[in-house]
Amino acid sequence: VLYRCHAKSFHQVLDIRGRDRLYFATSEQALLQSGKSTNPKEIPGSGFWVITNSNTTKKKSMLTRVAETLGYSAAEAEKIRDYL
Fold first, then answer.
1. 59-80 per-position pLDDT tens digit
2. Three-class SS state of 77
């Protein structure tokens, strides 16, 4: 949903990453090379890929960071996170 609402600026999520791992990329291969057991999936219709082999807490953290990167306030990002 965030991609559909912010398609033109979604490329900013490529800067969201962990200490040793990419969370988002423009190819499956980039995520596979960034760590073990990343289980990349394409965000439907976007051309962006995301790792999916994370626990729910990490996924919520990633979603919060995506929302904030796309310009949502901390309170709005928290509400978005709670949908997960």
1. 999 999 999 999 999 999 999 9
2. helix
- The rounded radius of gyration (Å) of the Cα atoms in the chain is 12
Please give the sequence-ordered ranges of beta strands (E in DSSP) within 1-84, or none if there are none: 24-25, 41-42, 49-50
Type of residue numbered 37: S
What gap in Å lies between CA 15 and CA 25, rounded to an integer? 9
In degrees and rounded to multiples of 5, residue 49 shows phi and psi of -120, 150
Q: Does the predicted model carry a pTM greater than 0.85?
A: yes
Residue 13 and residue 21: Cα distance in Å, rounded? Answer: 14
Contact 49, 41 (CB under 8 A): yes
